[in-house]
Amino acid sequence: MQIEVVKSKIHRVKVTGADLNYIGSITIDKALMEAANMIEGEKVSIVNVNNGERLDTYIIPGEKNSGEITLNGPAARRVAPGDIIIIISYGLMDFEEAKNFSPSIVFPNEETNTLT
């Protein structure tokens, strides 16, 4: 049996931009992506701490060490710059494998979106 488990999480980062006139996705600082073991095009869930909104989208890498967290396209209607969000990716794995799996979870500085 396979189950879906948390693979990676960027816990509490500040939204730096919301670009409605874009195809779609979330732009994430490449340094945060690397620290959380996330890749370009990966599906992620976004949880907005400020308003409770939840949505799924995919990752576009942003400039490394820029602190950029931008929601693009329709997702831009679900956030405002300054909102705090949690970014979560999931993976499918065998039930027994999942028992010993440890997700990559990072806790950036919430004000600057940089790794501490």
Question: Can you put this structure into words, describing what you see?
Answer:
- The chain is 9% helix and 47% strand.
- It contains 2 helices and 8 strands; from the N terminus they run βββαββββαβ.
- The chain has an 8-stranded mixed beta sheet with strand order 2-6-3-5-4-7-1-8.
- A hairpin with a 5-residue loop joins strand 4 and strand 5 (54-62).
- It is globular and about 40 Å long.
- 30% of the residues are buried.
Using only C-alpha atoms, the radius of gyration works out to 14 Å
Shape descriptor reads globular
The poorly predicted ranges are none
Question: How many domains is the backbone divided into?
Answer: 1
Cα distance spanning the termini: 38 Å
Provide the β-strand percentage band. over 45%
Count the DSSP helices.
Answer: 2
Mean pLDDT metric: 97
Q: What is the second-level CATH architecture?
A: Beta Barrel
How is the CATH topology named?
Answer: Barwin-like endoglucanases
Number of strands: 8
SSE topology:
Elements lengths: L1 E13 L2 E3 L5 E5 H6 L7 E6 L5 E9 L6 E4 L11 E11 H4 L5 E3 L10
Parallel strand pairs: 1-8, 2-6, 3-5
Antiparallel strand pairs: 1-7, 3-6, 4-5, 4-7
Cofactor: pyruvate
Pathway: Cofactor biosynthesis; (R)-pantothenate biosynthesis; beta-alanine from L-aspartate: step 1/1
Protein name: Aspartate 1-decarboxylase
